[in-house]
Amino acid sequence: MIYSHQDSWTLEGIVQSVPLLGWWYDHVVRNILGSMLTSAGGFLHTANQTTGYLQYRAEEVQKLSNDIIEKSSSDIQQRSREMTLRAQNLVDQAKTTVEKRVATAREEVDRMRQMMRPGGGGVGGYQTFTKAITGAESRS
User: Fold this and answer.
1) Cα–Cα–Cα angle for 99, 104, 109, nearest 5°?
2) For the chain, is the Cβ count within 10 Å smaller at the N or the C terminus?
3) 98 burial class (0-12, 13-18, 19+ CB within 10 angstroms)?
4) Residue 112: Cβ within 10 Å count
5) Tens-digit pLDDT profile for residues 22-50
6) CB 116 within 8 A of CB 125
7) Which of 22, 4, 5 is nearest to 13 (CA)?
């Protein structure tokens, strides 16, 4: 004796029980869904690989950029040092030249002062100085 009977049906079971719909589900729908899922999995796999490759290349580009910046920076610093040394040498040369000319001018001024002193610096003192400057003797 059977007191109760329960059946549980799934949507797939119901579709397969209908003759034309079952064949269409088995041969068309399942193949299309399988192909779509496989394609989606392949797409995700390819996207994941591409993302990894792009990330690797981005890190490589970043490293190369940092190397270029560092090299350029050291080149600029080296050139700056060289130019600073050249400028310092020019300033030192100019300073030496000016010091020599000032010393020469002082000697010339001292020599002229001695020539202008009465009785000091040669025959005739003032007359010798005048002759040295004008090229003619003064008559006083």
Assistant:
1) 125
2) N
3) exposed
4) 13
5) 888 888 888 898 999 999 999 999 999 99
6) yes
7) 22
